[in-house]
Amino acid sequence: MKLLAGVPGWEVKADVIVIGSGVAGLTTALNLRANNLSVLLVTKARIDEGSTKWAQGGIAAAFGPGDTPDQHKKDTLIAGAGLCDTEAVEVLVTEGPEAVRKLIARGAVFDKSESGEISLTREGGHLRNRILHAGGDATGAEVSRALLAAVQEDIGIEVIENALVIDVLKGKSGRVCGVTLHVIGAGSRDGVGRALARAVVIATGGLGQVYAQTTNPSVSTGDGVALSLRAGAEIADVEFIQFHPTVLWREESLGGQQPLISEAVRGEGAFLVNDKGERFMQGKHPQADLAPRDIVAIEIFKQMKERNTPHVWLDATGIKDFPERFPTINSSCLANGIDPRKQLIPVSPASHYSSGGVRVDLVGRTTVPGLYACGETACTGAHGANRLASNSLLEGLVFGTRISGDIAQNLLEQEEPINESGYEFLLDPAIKLTLQLAMSQGAGVMRSEQSLQETLKTLLQLGSHESNDPCIEAWEVSNLYLLAVAIVRSALERKESRGSHWRSDFPNTSDQWLKRVVESYDISGKWHTRFEVVK
């Protein structure tokens, strides 16, 4: 199956195509160049507009005195609630410190203490200070800056901006040999074209726009996961959508990307209260306000429901150097009429991160030959049922390096694409808001058989709103539709509460569900589900 699109009118070639310009894509591209491979880097908007630059908290790595990869591993496994792939976690935490050192060597500058050592802080779920940060709360922006500078200096990396990748191309062997894409712009690359390569790496980031409230930028429509599904790749763990517990609450009518209030703020002493001023996280978890994100999000949700309020409050008035420590967050608050030094900050949960995605092995290979996935697009198994704070940037660094090594060792000759059988489809962009609201209401923080079935019913109805007008908006909403259906299907299958998946009708965690839900989608448009026992 593929999206309805025009006939390609232009062509470009490279050894490897990397789709996405966040930490995962940029790291992969730079390491491919270190192996003397030419790279075509395709990004949906401008090269610096992905989710990476919005990451506030930092990068988790065992750098501090007395800290070890094994301790980092234990914290990651606890947060993952029994569904982490132990080998993937081992890779993440043991190769993480070296990956960060390499990032520093590429020019990334992290905040330092008065003694000149890298300053480390703590976030939810971590039992030690191991979070490197830059510019206070602008870590992602600094990581993105350093990697982009290295990419822009490399003449072996060709960049195509403002391009949406539509579908993969395959050769006679069934191996991926390129992609079709649409570029918004002037000249020979205006419109649909095709890019040929000996391997394709999907690093398109998250899918937060499938929900009405999200911290993700507008480009985060899960294009890479949807593209991989249509290519025949398996996806896993997509029911585990992490809702960041503390997002600056604004009137729903404002819409758009919502400002994140990093849990590093709680790491520096801020705490949550309800409308009566009660600290409701105390007694709910040993780490109270610094409990793992799923625990905090569900407690906030309960407070909002019990007290019929649209948000709770974050008290950060005790952090006297707030503007200096958290300049980005301070600016967001001030722009919304709140002075964090004097006023409580209204916060509520919003879609933030997908722990699942395209199922890959320890070197990023999907179940489709020639197709790799990295970063939030991928499901390495390292996050399990709930990503530990600040492990996401680390995952992009570690697995981006691993992917490039595997490609360099196993790259085959270029194949010519063939016309695959299967039907084309495209949905009307007008269904987008209805889809997002249905997902937030029925497949959000708290779910049930009834809410999920109602959401699925709405989605199936929306699936009949077809379009014959190929455009960016139609391709995006078609991708969101596929992802929404996949999330709801997986959430219906998992009859328990675990990690960031909460069901009011199955409130307990069950050992019968120490397995991941794996889904695929065939060329006729039929879904298939299997279960994978967690190692």
Summarize the structure.
With 535 residues, this protein is an alpha/beta fold. 31% of the residues lie in helices and 19% in strands.
Task: Furnish the topology, listing elements before pairings.
Layout: E1 2-3, E2 11-13, E3 16-19, H1 23-34, E4 39-42, E5 59-60, H2 69-79, H3 86-105, E6 120-121, E7 131-132, H4 139-152, E8 157-160, E9 163-170, E10 176-183, E11 191-196, E12 199-202, H5 223-231, E13 235-236, E14 241-248, H6 264-267, E15 271-273, H7 293-307, E16 312-315, H8 322-325, H9 327-335, E17 345-354, E18 357-359, E19 371-373, E20 378-379, H10 392-410, E21 424-425, H11 432-442, H12 449-462, H13 472-493, E22 515-521, E23 527-533
Parallel strand pairs: 1-21, 2-11, 3-4, 3-12, 4-8, 12-19, 18-20
Antiparallel strand pairs: 5-7, 6-7, 9-10, 10-11, 13-18, 13-22, 14-17, 15-16, 16-17, 22-23
CATH class wording of the domain at 424-533: Mainly Alpha
Fraction of residues in helices? 25-40%
Helices and strands: which structural class? alpha/beta
**Rounded average pLDDT:** 92
Instruction: Please tell me the CATH architecture of the domain at 424-533 by its name.
Output: Up-down Bundle
Number of E strands: 23
Strand order of the largest sheet: 8-4-3-12-19
Can you tell me the CATH topology of the domain at 424-533?
Methane Monooxygenase Hydroxylase, Chain G, domain 1
Low-pLDDT ranges: none
Specify the number of helices: 13
**What is the gyration radius calculated from CA atoms?**
22 Å
Task: Note the beta-strand portion.
Answer: 15-25%
